[in-house]
TrEMBL record:
InterPro entries: Alpha/beta_knot_MTases, NA-bd_OB-fold, Put_MeTrfase-C9orf114-like, tRNA_m1G_MTases_N. One of its GO terms (molecular function) is methyltransferase activity. It comes from hydrocarbon metagenome. This is Methylase. CDD domains: HsC9orf114-like. Gene3D superfamilies: 3.40.1280.10, Nucleic acid-binding proteins.
């Protein structure tokens, strides 16, 4: 295990409710993905807002951005909702390598791969890892064509890889996306996680308050929930839940009438990032 802090953010399915323009909404979701990557968020949870449920579109854009460029055509079918993804900035994370030359791969290097061929009864597998050709995978298991998996280079001549569990990768390796029906139920299931509610009604984060927040942090895992463009978190959580969790305002004295969800995500994660600089 790496022992690093796991971070999650919870956003509403109504994130895109303010516009019917797919281009605008693609960029909005792209900002969430960039914030997640910048601040090493391991999971993005989309909770359903009964007033406006665009979870399919949001999750589709998030998953597209998290998938390495060299695997997108292989793993993500072409859909109308993805027509504006060319405008999105790359994540530039460790699992989105720029280098595509096989000779520069080093033993011990990690890559995201996808199975392109499975041959023989012994489970022979070839994987695409973003170089000029698929490479063999050393494994005793069978993987179906199209299966995404993490691999580690163990040989250069011949070039070959082996599957590896993500928990054994020592650096940030992207985020997973999940859609849930209820914010309250999901938070209740996160018993070993420190939960923070980002709200204008919360305690204002001043330098002193931030110091107290950092010093009081006794759980490594962190989850931050955000309200919708139209309603605060009190519309999705009971009064008991609102009292049970830590509620903070990371943009006190805001100069605008409202703060957009994607803006709140960046501001909040930037401050809370100070809670785990030891990672």
């Amino acid at each position: 295990m790496t022992g690093r802090c796991e971070r999650a953010i919870l956003i509403p399915s109504s994130l895109t409710m303010e516009s019917r323009d797919t281009r605008v909404n693609t960029l909005k979701v792209g900002q969430i993905a960039r914030a997640a990557a910048v601040f090493r968020v391991s999971r993005i949870v989309i909770y359903r807002d009964q007033e406006y449920n665009d979870s399919r579109f949001i999750s589709m854009i998030l998953r597209y951005m998290e998938t390495p460029q060299y695997l997108r055509k292989l793993l993500i079918p072409r859909k109308e909702e993805l027509r504006h993804v060319g405008m999105l900035p790359p994540l530039r994370t460790s699992h989105h390598p720029i280098n595509s030359k096989s000779e520069s791969l080093k033993i011990g290097e990690f890559r995201v791969g996808a199975v392109v061929e499975s041959v023989g009864s012994d489970g022979g597998v070839w994987v695409e890892i973003g170089i000029n050709r698929p490479i063999p995978l050393r494994t005793g298991e069978k993987y179906p064509v199209g299966q995404r998996l993490n691999v580690r280079i163990f040989s250069q001549e011949p070039l070959a890889a082996e599957p590896v569990d993500q928990k054994d990768i020592p650096h940030y390796w992207g985020y997973e996306t999940e859609v849930v029906d209820s914010l309250e139920s999901y938070l209740e299931s996160m018993r070993d996680t420190r939960i923070v509610l980002a709200s204008r009604s919360g305690r204002a984060i001043t330098p002193q308050a931030l110091l107290e927040l950092v010093q009081s942090g006794n759980k490594r895992d962190l989850a931050v929930a955000f309200g919708s463009p139209a309603r605060g978190l009190d519309a999705f959580l009971s009064k008991e839940s609102m009292k049970r969790y830590e509620m903070i305002n990371t943009i006190p004295h805001q100069g605008t009438e409202t703060v957009r969800v994607e803006e709140a995500v960046f501001a909040t994660l930037a401050l809370l990032n100070l809670m785990s600089l030891e990672d």
